[in-house]
Design a protein that fits this description.
The structure holds two protein chains of two kinds.
Chain A: H1 2-20, H2 35-62, H3 65-97, H4 105-126, H5 130-145, H6 147-158, H7 178-214
Helix pairs in contact in A: 1-7, 2-3, 2-5, 2-7, 3-4, 3-5, 3-7, 4-5, 4-6
Chain B: H1 3-34
The chains are: A mainly alpha, B mainly alpha.
Chain lengths: 215, 35
């Protein structure tokens, strides 16, 4: 309970700091604040899909349905954070580039990522039988994750993109005001903790559902 | 009140509502686990 309240205060403090304490980037103006939601959502999307792949592999190795709950839950949450990153990015794009959607390499990549994991959920919904569903979904998840580093890290660097590069300058140091970096990292830690909480709720629900089916 | 503070207030309100919803959901899950 204390951890939950701490998480609430942590993220609330991050938002207040982002709006009142951290400076704005001159070119971006007030839209700088979108960064504190967009960046953590995008990173947590990658973490969630990675988590889903790890538990899918563990399921294939051990055949423990608890791993399937983790894999499914992480994929669902990854998709949710992917939607948050896409919507916040698209609002930002409207303000900076003049249109909500520009088929920029980053936008196209995240759209493909969305489709890949939406197909994962569609696959799960289409298969009857817990064991069979878990096995086929685990294989799909392991194969699907191969595309994640490619779509997130490779494609946007091959093609010209309007999206700014990662926030590191040529000497590998953050090329941004340290206060902005601090708030962004603070928010990333909070959103990652939120993901862990949401995942634990989803896994517990999966366990209850299975126990009821067996009963 | 500036637009910035309005957006911040909305963000805090939304986060508060999400938090309360999750808290209640967790309590419900605990009840189900006990049964």
């Amino acid at each position: 309970m204390i951890l939950r309240i701490l998480l609430f205060l942590w993220l609330a403090a991050g938002m207040v700091a982002g709006f009142t304490w951290a400076p704005v980037v001159p070119v971006l103006g007030n839209t700088t604040r979108v960064f504190y939601f967009h960046f953590p959502a995008a990173i947590v999307t990658t973490i969630a899909f990675g988590w889903s792949m790890v538990h899918s592999a563990l399921y294939l190795a051990r055949r423990d349905l608890g791993h399937d709950d983790h894999a499914a839950g992480a994929a669902e949450l990854g998709l949710l954070f992917c939607i948050v990153a896409t919507i916040s990015g698209s609002l930002w794009a409207r303000a900076m580039w003049g249109a909500y959607w520009n088929w920029d390499p980053r936008e196209t990549s995240i759209f493909f990522l969305f489709l890949i994991y939406a197909a994962y959920l569609a696959l799960r919904a289409a298969i009857d039988g817990t064991e069979r569903r878990a096995r086929l979904a685990a294989i799909y998840s392991c194969v699907a994750f191969v595309a994640v580093p490619f779509l997130i890290f490779v494609v946007p660097r091959i093609y010209f993109s309007l999206h700014p590069d990662p926030l590191l300058g040529q000497r590998g140091k953050p090329d941004i005001d340290p206060r902005i970096m601090l708030v962004a990292t603070w928010m990333l830690a909070g959103v990652t903790a939120l993901f862990v909480w949401l995942l634990s709720l989803r896994v517990r629900l999966g366990r209850i559902e299975r126990a009821r089916q067996e009963f | 009140m500036s637009a910035n503070l309005t957006v911040m207030a909305v963000a805090l309100l939304v986060w508060g509502l999400v938090f309360v919803y999750l808290w209640r959901l967790e309590r419900r899950i605990k009840d189900l686990e006990r049964k």
